[in-house]
Amino acid sequence: MSTVSDLTTTLSGVSLSRRSTTFTLVSSDGQRFDVDSAVLAFHSKVFADMFETVGESDEADRTCDLAEDGATVKAFLEALLEGIPPSTQEAWLSVFSLMDKYECKALKTPLLLAEWSPICSDLIWAYAVGCHLGYTDLAWTALRQVSDYTGLRGWGAVFDALPQEPRNVFTTYFQERTEKARSILQNINFGKVCSCARDKDERDCDKGVWDTVVLSVCSRLDGGEDVVARVREEIWSRVGQWGDCHRCGKKLHKKVGELAGRWERAQQQLADKTFSRLSAALNKA
């Protein structure tokens, strides 16, 4: 495979021997890139039309001034001609914007491959990449796997550049997960307190422990977290309160199982609704 260094050369006062297909792209900051016009035209309809207009003109006319700076042009050519993913989120966005501007569908692959690069620091980035490129399954898989939801600040340039609707899908999903988890927890009927309450404080029996755990979990609940695992963890942390009564342990175990069943059904319903919203949002884009 030809490399960008083969196909492009930054001119720095060095006299270059040109072939008839050589064309010079000039960035907004004056950097000059020699490209093989036939190769570039193959990947871009905009450049193909441009080169056809220029034809076999004099060498002095075979240049094109671009609005992008040299770093952006370099990232664009590397992605298009060599398949190298952009190395920063800002570069990713710049190259993504040029995909439509220059009608370069071939850029989709290196932009998608960036999802596995070092700049993909978390699943929020993968969600944003999927939304920008119209890959619903990628965006949905990432959304389902996000385990921490703390608001919209500091999530990276690629996510911040999303249209409002995909951003709303993301935030609404976690808000509804939080509300549903809280509702299920608060509406599980625990029933009567264990008979061991006659011999100790009711707060140290099954119902007292359950009520304490529900209050604790509901007060600090993130939409992406596993609510069942959280409840189990909090109950276990209080094992000293009820550990001498097997009836308390059995009842708590039963209620966690009830929570797990309800939560699984609720998640599936929410997943179906959210996937439909996401598909509609990306189809509009």
TrEMBL record:
This is BTB/POZ domain containing protein. InterPro entries: BTB/POZ_dom (IPR000210), SKP1/BTB/POZ_sf (IPR011333). SUPFAM superfamilies: POZ domain. Pfam families: BTB. It comes from the Eukaryota. Residues 21-108 form the BTB domain.
